[in-house]
């Protein structure tokens, strides 16, 4: 049993005591206060703990003393009640009000009091610099299916008009070439035929769309809305849309939603396609809650139509239509892939289960080679390769998510071998990629759609490796199980390498001005990678993990020879976190990404004592002065050699580790948590304090951390 389980009823009662008064420091900074003297936050930060400000909620009771009383606190001065409009103390802890919400998100694994405290911190200190919290009065008018989502500017359906035919064709082309890299559920020639029909009716004197069913109209509108999130500049480069573009995008979406609300009769394939496109649009416009509910309806419609079971459909299909068959397969497997990411990001159960699917993967065939009667397979690079490989990687991710260690940490030494096996599957998956998706071809030489597919699969691979290996950051399992030390430290190195390479890839988007607000997937993976790096630096600083920078012998024979010294990782993460904040500035959950990452930064800065900041032993000033973009690039290994070289690296990776308490010296100069204005944002209360129990990070740290940004409305 844990210490918390063995606690007596009296102890538990003290832990949940309602705090009715915050100290002056916590009240000024709008932080949660423990209510005693000196309080927990003041004790940790060596601040004077006073209760001198006026108290207006009845009789001011003296705060109980804490177990230790430092010298820098002053006694309480009693005050009367003088103001007529009492306000609650900003730092006062309110009773938990969301246990049912927690259960609906994570079930039993999330029923922890420390998570409730974090949620209270998020509610008590909304972010004004990035996105204001939802107005309680306004939230009363928000649908339960959209609560917590980004509030978009209102558009009037009376303003809707179909774009010109030339404009529509341009947006459709942009969609297929750029906006849909791996979630390709449509047949491009069929869409072109629908566009022709749409505008042909107008030339014959009919109202545009009058001869198309509402589902087909909605499909076209959602393609237009997705493509309108981007624009092409005068140099032919893709850029984020301007305000007019985003307004038109929302107007197209609103019209599509309106049309689908009018749909009657039996559902069709187009009915499901339109709703799947709606899910992707909602995610791209920071409406994850509504996207989740629409996705549930979409999956149910697929099940009702029997799209998941090819044998069930055989009795109902009179004539084989290869285009329809491929679109059904694409829809099922793209939804399967998206389901895995939504499950992980939102912390909710999966809707698709492998045992329920009895449908082949989509055929790797280009749309122009697919007709209703024929599939012409060619040796050309195929645009459907990426969706298929994305789906197979999602299957590995599904297998990993079922492993108990992912949620609760490693409890048995055999789970180290489980991690090794899962990483081996990813190495095999990578070795099977075609050259244009493997990274051996310079991305700039690829056509736009292949370049987008390459980056999506690279991010997906980094995410899968991080997801599989990140529980290794919780404890030094190599010290716990010496016989697995080599494998443990190798895979810890693999985790950090994946996080670093993910951030470097995202920073390459920044250099090209291509980190678009609509790229929700890139933002999520950036948050993942930054969380890993910050927690790793914290754990090394606490002497709870070996340093990857010292652990691994670098040589040309090793695949894993990335620069993983702590100052380099910190410098990289600080660059990336700034750009992540910029890219998510108008997102509903953006301030929550910020508060969690700022909390991790704050914890890291708090661990650096003043005597360390002037010590320059670990890293020379010349190395620290080089920006990330100026470092020499690492050679790219051919994917076919990856598995063999990783095994060689693992066998020779480790040497004895001697923790150095001064590993992070000069890079932290100026990061004084007591005076740094960035770190003193009201939201930067050290979240790690609520995640730390005893000497170790709580074992379900990762699922709780991951679901925080968009699981709890502001």
TrEMBL record:
Q: Name one GO cellular component term.
A: nucleus
Q: Which GO terms describe its biological process?
A: DNA-templated transcription; positive regulation of transcription by RNA polymerase II
Q: What is its main location?
A: nucleus
The molecule here is called: C6 transcription factor
The answer to whether UniProt assigns keyword Transcription to this entry is yes
PROSITE patterns tied to this protein: ZN2_CY6_FUNGAL_1, ZN2_CY6_FUNGAL_2
Transmembrane segment boundaries = 518-537
Zn(2)-C6 fungal-type domain location: 22-51
User: Where is region (Disordered) located?
Assistant: 60-94, 612-660
The answer to whether the entry has keyword Transit peptide is no
Q: Where is the composition biased (Basic and acidic residues)?
A: 628-658
């Amino acid at each position: 049993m844990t210490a918390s389980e063995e606690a007596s009823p009296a102890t538990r009662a003290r832990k949940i005591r309602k705090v009715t008064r915050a100290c002056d420091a916590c009240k000024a900074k709008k932080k949660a206060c423990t209510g005693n003297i000196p309080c927990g936050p003041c004790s940790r930060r060596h601040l004077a703990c006073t209760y001198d400000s006026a108290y207006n909620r009845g009789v001011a009771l003296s705060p109980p003393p804490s177990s230790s009383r430092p010298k820098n606190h002053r006694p309480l001065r009693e005050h009367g009640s003088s103001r007529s409009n009492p306000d609650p103390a900003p730092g006062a802890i309110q009773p938990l009000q969301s246990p049912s919400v927690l259960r609906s998100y994570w079930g039993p694994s999330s029923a922890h009091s420390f998570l409730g405290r974090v949620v209270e911190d998020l509610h008590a200190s909304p972010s004004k610099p990035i996105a204001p919290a939802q107005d309680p009065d306004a939230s009363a008018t928000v649908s339960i299916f959209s609560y917590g989502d980004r509030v978009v500017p209102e558009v009037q359906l009376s303003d809707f008009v179909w774009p010109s035919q030339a404009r529509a064709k341009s947006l459709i082309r942009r969609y297929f070439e750029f906006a849909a890299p791996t979630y390709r559920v449509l047949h491009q020639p069929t869409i072109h035929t629908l566009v022709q029909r749409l505008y042909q009716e107008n030339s014959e004197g009919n109202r545009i769309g009058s001869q198309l069913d509402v589902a087909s109209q909605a499909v076209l509108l959602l393609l237009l809305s997705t493509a309108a999130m981007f624009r092409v500049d005068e140099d032919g480069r893709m850029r984020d849309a301007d305000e007019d573009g985003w307004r038109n995008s929302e107007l197209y979406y609103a019209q599509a939603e309106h049309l689908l609300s009018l749909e009657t009769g039996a559902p069709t394939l187009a009915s499901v396609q339109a709703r799947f496109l709606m899910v992707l649009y909602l995610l791209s416009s920071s409406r994850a809650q509504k996207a989740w509910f629409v996705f549930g309806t979409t999956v149910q419609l697929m099940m009702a139509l029997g799209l998941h079971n090819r044998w069930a459909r055989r009795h109902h299909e009179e004539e084989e239509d290869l285009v329809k068959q491929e679109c059904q397969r694409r829809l099922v497997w793209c939804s399967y892939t998206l389901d895995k990411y939504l499950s992980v990001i939102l912390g909710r159960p999966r809707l698709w289960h492998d045992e329920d699917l009895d449908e082949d993967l989509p055929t790797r065939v280009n749309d122009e080679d697919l007709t209703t009667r024929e599939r012409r397979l060619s040796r050309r690079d195929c645009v459907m390769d990426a969706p298929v490989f994305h789906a197979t990687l999602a299957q590995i991710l599904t297998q990993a998510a079922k492993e108990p260690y992912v949620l609760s940490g490693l409890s048995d030494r055999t789970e180290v071998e489980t991690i090794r096996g899962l990483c081996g599957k990813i190495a095999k998956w990578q070795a099977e990629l075609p050259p244009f998706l493997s990274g051996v071809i310079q991305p700039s030489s690829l056509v736009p759609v292949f370049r987008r597919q390459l980056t999506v699969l690279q991010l997906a691979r980094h995410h899968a490796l991080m997801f599989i290996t990140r529980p290794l950051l919780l404890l030094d399992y190599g010290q716990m199980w010496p016989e697995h030390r080599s494998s443990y430290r190798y895979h810890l190195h693999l985790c950090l390498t994946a996080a670093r390479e993910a951030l470097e890839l995202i920073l390459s988007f920044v250099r090209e001005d291509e980190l678009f607000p609509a790229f929700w997937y890139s933002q999520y993976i950036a948050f993942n990678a930054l969380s890993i790096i910050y927690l790793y630096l914290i754990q090394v600083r606490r002497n709870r993990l070996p340093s990857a920078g010292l652990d691994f012998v670098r040589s040309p024979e090793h695949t894993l020879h990335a620069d993983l010294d702590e100052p380099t990782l910190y410098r990289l993460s600080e660059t990336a976190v700034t750009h992540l904040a910029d890219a998510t500035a108008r997102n509903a959950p953006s301030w929550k990404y910020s508060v969690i990452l700022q909390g991790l930064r704050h914890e890291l800065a708090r661990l650096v004592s003043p005597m360390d900041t002037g010590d320059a032993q670990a890293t020379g000033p010349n190395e620290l002065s080089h920006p990330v973009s100026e470092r020499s690039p690492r050679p790219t290994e051919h994917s076919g050699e990856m598995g063999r070289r990783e095994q060689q690296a693992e066998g020779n990776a480790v040497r004895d580790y001697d923790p150095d308490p001064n590993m992070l010296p000069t890079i932290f100069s100026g990061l004084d948590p007591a005076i740094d204005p960035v770190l003193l944002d009201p939201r930067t209360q050290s979240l790690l304090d609520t995640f730390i129990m005893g000497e170790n990070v709580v074992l379900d740290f990762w699922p709780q951390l991951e679901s925080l940004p968009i699981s709890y409305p502001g």
